[in-house]
Protein backbone atom coordinates (compact mmCIF):
# COMPACT_ATOMS: atom_id res chain seq x y z
CA UNK A 1 0.00 0.00 0.00
CA UNK A 2 2.98 2.29 -0.70
CA UNK A 3 3.77 2.87 2.97
CA UNK A 4 7.30 2.82 4.32
CA UNK A 5 7.82 1.28 7.76
CA UNK A 6 11.12 1.73 9.58
CA UNK A 7 11.70 -1.29 11.77
CA UNK A 8 14.78 -3.01 13.11
CA UNK A 9 15.69 -6.13 11.20
CA UNK A 10 17.00 -7.95 14.29
CA UNK A 11 13.77 -9.71 15.31
CA UNK A 12 12.86 -10.46 11.72
CA UNK A 13 16.21 -12.13 11.10
CA UNK A 14 16.37 -13.85 14.48
CA UNK A 15 12.90 -15.36 14.38
CA UNK A 16 12.21 -16.02 10.70
CA UNK A 17 14.04 -18.12 8.13
CA UNK A 18 11.95 -16.32 5.50
CA UNK A 19 13.39 -12.94 6.52
CA UNK A 20 16.92 -14.25 7.03
CA UNK A 21 16.90 -15.36 3.41
CA UNK A 22 15.07 -12.27 2.12
CA UNK A 23 17.40 -9.83 3.88
CA UNK A 24 20.54 -11.78 2.94
CA UNK A 25 19.52 -11.58 -0.72
CA UNK A 26 18.31 -7.97 -0.51
CA UNK A 27 21.30 -6.40 1.17
CA UNK A 28 21.07 -3.48 3.59
CA UNK A 29 17.62 -1.94 3.59
CA UNK A 30 17.19 1.82 3.58
CA UNK A 31 14.68 4.46 2.60
CA UNK A 32 16.16 4.39 -0.90
CA UNK A 33 16.37 0.59 -0.97
CA UNK A 34 13.39 -0.68 1.08
CA UNK A 35 12.32 -4.29 1.42
CA UNK A 36 9.10 -4.61 -0.52
CA UNK A 37 6.41 -6.85 0.99
CA UNK A 38 3.82 -7.21 -1.74
CA UNK A 39 0.23 -8.07 -0.97
CA UNK A 40 0.44 -7.19 2.74
CA UNK A 41 -2.05 -4.63 4.01
CA UNK A 42 -1.01 -1.85 6.36
CA UNK A 43 -3.51 -3.09 8.96
CA UNK A 44 -2.15 -6.65 8.87
CA UNK A 45 1.46 -5.47 9.12
CA UNK A 46 0.65 -3.12 12.01
CA UNK A 47 -1.10 -5.96 13.86
CA UNK A 48 1.93 -8.16 13.33
CA UNK A 49 4.25 -5.42 14.56
CA UNK A 50 2.02 -5.05 17.63
CA UNK A 51 3.01 -8.59 18.58
CA UNK A 52 6.65 -8.23 17.57
CA UNK A 53 7.01 -4.89 19.39
CA UNK A 54 4.41 -4.97 22.19
CA UNK A 55 3.81 -1.97 24.42
CA UNK A 56 3.49 -4.40 27.33
CA UNK A 57 4.83 -7.95 27.04
CA UNK A 58 1.82 -9.42 28.83
CA UNK A 59 -0.75 -7.58 26.69
CA UNK A 60 -1.53 -7.51 22.99
CA UNK A 61 -3.43 -4.96 20.96
CA UNK A 62 -5.09 -7.72 18.92
CA UNK A 63 -8.31 -8.97 20.47
CA UNK A 64 -10.60 -10.27 17.72
CA UNK A 65 -10.67 -13.36 15.51
CA UNK A 66 -9.97 -11.16 12.46
CA UNK A 67 -6.96 -9.49 14.08
CA UNK A 68 -5.40 -12.71 15.38
CA UNK A 69 -6.09 -14.47 12.07
CA UNK A 70 -4.19 -11.77 10.18
CA UNK A 71 -1.27 -12.16 12.62
CA UNK A 72 -1.42 -15.93 12.17
CA UNK A 73 -1.41 -15.52 8.39
CA UNK A 74 1.76 -13.43 8.39
CA UNK A 75 3.47 -15.54 11.06
CA UNK A 76 2.78 -18.64 8.96
CA UNK A 77 3.82 -17.03 5.67
CA UNK A 78 7.02 -15.61 7.17
CA UNK A 79 7.92 -18.66 9.33
CA UNK A 80 7.68 -16.91 12.72
CA UNK A 81 6.98 -20.07 14.72
CA UNK A 82 6.76 -18.42 18.15
CA UNK A 83 4.31 -15.77 16.93
CA UNK A 84 2.34 -18.46 15.08
CA UNK A 85 2.07 -20.43 18.34
CA UNK A 86 0.96 -17.28 20.19
CA UNK A 87 -1.68 -16.47 17.56
CA UNK A 88 -3.06 -20.02 17.67
CA UNK A 89 -3.24 -19.87 21.47
CA UNK A 90 -4.97 -16.47 21.48
CA UNK A 91 -7.37 -17.40 18.66
CA UNK A 92 -8.58 -20.66 20.16
CA UNK A 93 -10.93 -19.23 22.83
CA UNK A 94 -12.18 -16.47 20.50
CA UNK A 95 -12.96 -18.58 17.44
CA UNK A 96 -16.33 -20.19 16.77
CA UNK A 97 -16.39 -23.80 15.55
CA UNK A 98 -16.83 -22.52 11.98
CA UNK A 99 -13.88 -20.14 12.43
CA UNK A 100 -11.81 -23.07 13.71
CA UNK A 101 -12.63 -25.11 10.61
CA UNK A 102 -11.75 -22.25 8.27
CA UNK A 103 -8.58 -21.21 10.11
CA UNK A 104 -7.57 -24.78 10.97
CA UNK A 105 -7.72 -25.85 7.33
CA UNK A 106 -6.15 -22.69 5.93
CA UNK A 107 -3.21 -22.53 8.35
CA UNK A 108 -2.61 -26.19 9.14
CA UNK A 109 -4.02 -26.58 12.66
CA UNK A 110 -5.41 -30.13 12.52
CA UNK A 111 -5.92 -30.33 16.30
CA UNK A 112 -8.82 -27.87 15.99
CA UNK A 113 -10.76 -29.72 13.30
CA UNK A 114 -12.37 -32.78 14.90
CA UNK A 115 -14.08 -30.93 17.76
CA UNK A 116 -15.06 -28.06 15.46
CA UNK A 117 -16.70 -30.42 12.92
CA UNK A 118 -18.51 -32.24 15.74
CA UNK A 119 -19.79 -28.94 17.16
CA UNK A 120 -21.03 -27.71 13.77
CA UNK A 121 -22.67 -31.04 12.92
CA UNK A 122 -24.30 -31.40 16.35
CA UNK A 123 -25.83 -27.95 16.52
CA UNK A 124 -29.51 -27.57 15.75
CA UNK A 125 -29.18 -24.61 13.40
CA UNK A 126 -28.05 -24.79 9.81
CA UNK A 127 -25.04 -22.87 8.52
CA UNK A 128 -25.71 -19.21 7.86
CA UNK A 129 -24.97 -17.63 4.48
CA UNK A 130 -21.94 -15.88 6.01
CA UNK A 131 -20.61 -19.13 7.49
CA UNK A 132 -21.10 -20.94 4.20
CA UNK A 133 -19.22 -18.24 2.29
CA UNK A 134 -16.36 -18.40 4.78
CA UNK A 135 -16.15 -22.19 4.64
CA UNK A 136 -16.41 -22.51 0.88
CA UNK A 137 -18.44 -24.96 -1.17
CA UNK A 138 -16.37 -28.10 -0.50
CA UNK A 139 -16.51 -27.65 3.28
CA UNK A 140 -20.25 -26.89 3.21
CA UNK A 141 -20.85 -30.10 1.26
CA UNK A 142 -18.61 -32.06 3.65
CA UNK A 143 -20.50 -30.71 6.68
CA UNK A 144 -23.86 -31.38 5.02
CA UNK A 145 -22.81 -34.98 4.36
CA UNK A 146 -21.62 -35.41 7.96
CA UNK A 147 -24.89 -34.03 9.30
CA UNK A 148 -26.85 -36.33 7.04
CA UNK A 149 -24.77 -39.34 8.12
CA UNK A 150 -25.34 -38.50 11.79
CA UNK A 151 -29.08 -38.12 11.14
CA UNK A 152 -29.24 -41.60 9.59
CA UNK A 153 -27.44 -43.13 12.57
CA UNK A 154 -29.72 -41.46 15.11
From TrEMBL:
Highest taxon above the source species: Eukaryota
Domain named BTB: residues: 1-61
Pfam families xrefs: BTB
Gene3D superfamilies: Potassium Channel Kv1.1, Chain A
Entry protein name: BTB domain-containing protein
